[in-house]
Design a protein that fits this description.
single chain; about 35% helix; His-Me finger endonuclease fold
């Protein structure tokens, strides 16, 4: 398999005007490091070319079916986030750390996979930046406000 190595080049974690931070590796990169897309306001996909290519390579690699089967068995067929059954035919997501180190090449990325999740569970974690503190706050908010929408307010 063709290994793809991370080349940080002129990339920096500090924000540079006109550059964009990749949603996966978190590195700030120039516009030419992204594929264009009319679907996004800024005209570019949210993942840099390198991370996008790694995701595609992992999804098409010989590792994917083995990883999915192994994780499915280790997790007893359940999503570790919501504890509901997974369906291998319903394209569950391979979760992995989004650090630049984990995104080095497809072999490193495959070795860094941490779990098999439902799509919505994976997106939910990502939307909260995989931050345990934020996730705990979100859980506390839900617990504190449960049932509030069912009450009538005197205005």
């Amino acid at each position: 398999m063709n290994q793809q190595h991370l080349d940080l080049g002129n990339c920096t974690p500090a924000v540079t005007v006109g550059w964009k931070v990749c949603n996966t590796c978190g590195l700030n990169k120039p516009p030419n490091a992204y594929y264009g897309s009319k679907l996004y306001v800024d005209g570019f996909r949210p993942l840099c070319r390198h991370c996008n290519n790694l995701h595609v390579a992992l999804n098409k690699s010989e590792y994917r079916p083995r990883l999915m089967r192994r994780l499915y068995e280790e997790q007893h067929g359940l999503c570790p986030v919501c504890d509901k059954p997974l369906d291998l035919e319903d394209s569950p997501h391979l979760d992995h750390p989004h650090s630049a180190e984990a995104m080095h090449d497809v072999h490193t990325l495959a070795a860094a996979v941490t779990g098999l999740l439902h799509r919505n569970c994976n997106v939910g974690l990502g939307m909260l930046n995989d931050d345990p503190t934020v996730l705990r706050r979100a859980a506390g908010y839900i617990e504190r406000t449960r049932g509030y929408g069912q009450q009538t307010l005197d205005l």
